[in-house]
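Incident log, structure service

09:12 report received: a user says their structure output differs between two submissions of the same chain.
09:20 pulled the input from the user's history:
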Amino acid sequence: MLEKPSYFPPTSNPALQVSRPDPAPATNLKGVVYSGAGVGAAVGGNGMGLWDEKQQTKKLSTTKPNRKLGRFDQKILELLETWGALGLGQLMGAFGAKGRRAGTMMELFFNKAFRSEGKVYKHVRKLQRRGLIRNYSSQHRFLYGLTRKGHAELVRLGLARLPDCTKEIGGPISVEHRLVCAAVGLAAERIWGAKARSERQVYNELIENSGGRMPAGFRLPDLLIEIGGEEIPVEIELHQKSNARYFRIWRYYREKLGGSGRVLYLVPIARRRGGLLKLAGKLGFGVVYACDLPAFRAAGGRPVFQNFRGQEYLPQ
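09:34 re-ran on a clean worker, output below:
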């Protein structure tokens, strides 16, 4: 078990639980994730990617069921357990050569460019034939998720980090939101040199460290990035919230992180970034740093985040 992160509360009351409001309905944000065969096609129009084994209607072949998995195959299963779902481009980027340009890596992380051939695809197809992974959406053939059988294999190998790969945290999560979280997390690890933990990982660590219950009032960030000895919450803000809800969230982060901390926001377009920072200034929350996704991609994953005071933060 990982050491207890400083972001987590030092004590907890097992009798207390936390509830989170259902997320807003997902919409397709053109140009944020995918082009051509876009997220709209991947989610079949409703924008929701529920982790439901019933979606798997086609029986998979179990050729060579006793053949041992290599480390490359195991790593694919571990990545899918961590992020919930990944596109083929993201899997290729996760295994990409360290000398590859940051811009090229970003194209892969956002599934803008990938080839349905080569080593990664060969291993993905092998895992599909063995029933260890599946197409996450029936509408998009290059989007993959872990099956129960695949998670059981991780457990058997002693590599599983989560007790249940099928459990959704805080209700259904849109495919688009899940993929953007994975893109930013992979970029943080590969380009920033940081350690990124997904929401499901943070939730599991918190449960383990808190007597099996969520402490009251605790907020799960979309990502938790550890860089330079600092743990930074990251919020992927694809849908706008009410001012009152932003106030509650930002007050929580200010109390949790203190005067020197920060929470990073990534929003779909520059106009939304400006609106978010304007509201943060009106409410007096300098802890909020924001950047838009187009700028994030254009900067090769190393963008400048800014708060309403004009103070900048460059991950490094």
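09:41 both user submissions now match this output. Likely a transient worker issue. Closing.
09:42 reviewer note: The beta strands are 86-87, 133-137, 140-146, 195-198, 223-227, 230-236, 263-267, 288-292, 305-306, 312-313. Residues 1-5, 10-65 have pLDDT under 50 and may be disordered.
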